[in-house]
């Protein structure tokens, strides 16, 4: 049997970033790989500029998700002030210095999308030659070095992630064994179809079940916010019925 680190993702707001084009910043209906890597990195105390360490973390893990409720869409339209271009500018100590001492500031329009009251479970398992153990990741999630959030800093967790290491034949079985919490039992079960998402991996326990889509959420260069595509498998399940693990 394979071991999986399972934990819950619930918040009043979440934002699972999609490809950003122009002023619009859309959110997917389920967690992105980059967002979960960021959450694990924050728990471990890895800083954004530590690109090699972030890459080792990314190479160490694979992941899958069980989405019970994708959340209602919330759109936020606002304006953002940006400083005028000043090639001679030195370090700015305050936001006021940045905006007003380099010339007249400009304005950027921005439309951002969030998911309200979304609920999902995540399962993480290790690849070959992993730089971390599941126990290390579990302890980090229990006592995170930095604040954990759901895709954006403005989307903090509404409940602890409550990590559990579960031995199972597949990540789906591990997530089915994960203990439900009260919000799930009272409000979500039966309201919509449960959906599973995962990446192909020797240790997922699933062999190409469902259909496949491409998703641009594999971090490529953190400094330049660049991402590349990966294949993600999808399985639609009805309610809480058992899902077959072979086909």
Describe the structure.
- This protein has 247 residues and is of the alpha+beta class.
- Helix content is 21%, strand content 36%.
- The chain contains six helices and nine strands; from the N terminus they run ββααββαβαβααβββ.
- Strands 1, 2, 3, 4, 5, 6, 7, 8 and 9 form a nine-stranded mixed beta sheet that branches.
- Strand 8 and strand 9 form a beta hairpin.
- The longest helix has 12 residues.
Compact summary:
By secondary structure, the chain is α+β, with helices and mostly antiparallel strands.
General shape: globular
Briefly note the structural class of the backbone: alpha+beta
Share of residues in strands: 35-45%
The CATH class = Alpha Beta
- CATH topology (level 3) name: Alpha-Beta Plaits
Mean pLDDT: 83
Helix segment tally:
6
Total number of strands: 9
Q: What is the H-and-E element order?
A: EEHHEEHEHEHHEEE
Q: Using the 3D structure, state the CATH architecture.
A: 2-Layer Sandwich
Distance between the termini: 19 Å
State the major sheet. Answer: 9 strands, mixed
Q: Could you say how many structural domains there are in total?
A: 1
Helix content: 10-25%
Report the uncertain regions: 239-247
Gyration radius from CA atoms, angstroms: 20 Å
